[in-house]
């Protein structure tokens, strides 16, 4: 309780409309600034929300796994068409014991990360040019739009002829796949930055580079992160295209080798690993998104 200058107790404040609408004592206390109650409630709500999100996210995969298992155990479905989950696990154990599974995963992951880093950087630069400069937009947009429409497999023969059959064409193909989503999202977002923010930056004497790094890029952080997530998904798609031809290692090679040898269990294993790795890397980008939005969002 506090007193005013005259030593009297100040009149009690009436609850705000938001406080009157609160359905619980914790909500009312949080409205009036009782941080202990509010913090406890918000942390409890976040933990419950996270647990609920995890549970809901597991429902469909568990249902698919159960359906797959039941169908694979059916006498009418032969093993060479649909292996059971234990058979896929055993195939993974066999590859791991031979030392190939870890090698394939690491090689594919390395190709994706290098190609994604190169391609997203190029996409960011081109997107900034097209989004900020009308002249660059008129010069580059038609050509980049045409290149973006070229299918991924159409690039591979040309890249193999120009660069050989080793790592450069594979990483280049992945970089091509990663560049266009970042370019598209960044260019579109920069065109719609609030002009008042730009004018305020110029009033403070910022140069073009200063405006880009201090005003315009922070204003389009959500769009940039969305482009990065799309680019990462494209990188995994282009990885498979790159490893299906001219590769002796990697998850894409495991796909085509399993097809040629009739190992449907390894084929399922490769598909599952690609999905798990893609989701894991996407989750890591999501953590970066939270950090960026906390600073600039």
What would your notes on this structure say?
This protein is mainly alpha-helical and 297 residues long. It has two domains: 20-73; 85-296, Orthogonal Bundle (MetI-like fold). It contains 13 helices and no strands. The protein has helices at 17-21, 25-31, 35-73, 85-97, 100-132, 134-148, 152-163, 167-191, 195-203, 208-219, 221-243, 251-261, 264-296. The two termini are 37 Å apart. Residues 1-40 have low confidence and may be disordered.
What is the number of independent domains? 2
Under the CATH scheme, the architecture of the largest domain is Orthogonal Bundle
CATH class categorisation of the largest domain:
Mainly Alpha
Order of helices and strands: HHHHHHHHHHHHH
Structural class: mainly alpha
Shape: globular
Strand content: under 5%
CATH superfamily of the largest domain, called what?
A: MetI-like
Number of strands: 0
Radius of gyration: 27 Å
Largest sheet: none
Could you estimate the helical fraction of the residues in percent? over 70%
Could you provide a short overview of the structure?
The chain has 297 residues and is mostly helical. It has 13 helices and no strands.
């Amino acid at each position: 309780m506090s007193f005013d200058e005259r030593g009297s107790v100040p009149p009690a404040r009436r609850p705000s409309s938001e406080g009157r609408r609160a359905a619980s004592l914790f909500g009312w206390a949080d409205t009036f600034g009782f941080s202990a109650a509010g913090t406890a409630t918000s942390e409890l709500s976040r933990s419950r929300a996270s647990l609920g999100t995890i549970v809901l996210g597991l429902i469909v995969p568990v249902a698919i796994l159960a359906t797959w298992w039941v169908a694979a155990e059916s006498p009418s479905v032969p093993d060479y068409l649909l292996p059971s989950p234990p058979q896929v696990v055993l195939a993974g154990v066999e590859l791991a014991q031979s030392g190939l599974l870890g090698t394939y995963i690491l090689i594919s992951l390395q190709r994706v990360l290098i190609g994604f880093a190169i391609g997203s950087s190029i996409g960011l630069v081109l997107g900034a040019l097209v989004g900020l400069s009308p002249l660059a937009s008129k010069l580059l947009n038609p050509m980049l739009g045409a290149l973006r429409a070229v299918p991924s497999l159409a690039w591979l023969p040309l890249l193999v002829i120009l660069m050989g059959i080793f790592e450069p064409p594979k990483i280049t193909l992945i970089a091509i796949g990663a560049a266009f989503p970042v370019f598209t999202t960044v260019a579109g977002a920069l065109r719609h930055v609030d002009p008042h923010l730009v004018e305020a930056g110029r009033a403070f004497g910022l140069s073009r580079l200063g405006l880009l790094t201090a005003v315009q890029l922070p204003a389009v952080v959500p769009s940039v992160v969305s482009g990065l997530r799309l680019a990462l998904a494209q990188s995994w798609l282009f990885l498979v295209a790159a490893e299906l031809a001219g590769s002796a290692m990697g998850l894409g090679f495991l796909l085509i080798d399993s097809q040629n040898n009739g190992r449907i269990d390894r084929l399922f294993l490769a598909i599952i690993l690609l999905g798990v790795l893609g989701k894991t890397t996407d989750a890591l980008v999501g953590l970066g998104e939270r950090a960026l939005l906390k600073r600039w969002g």
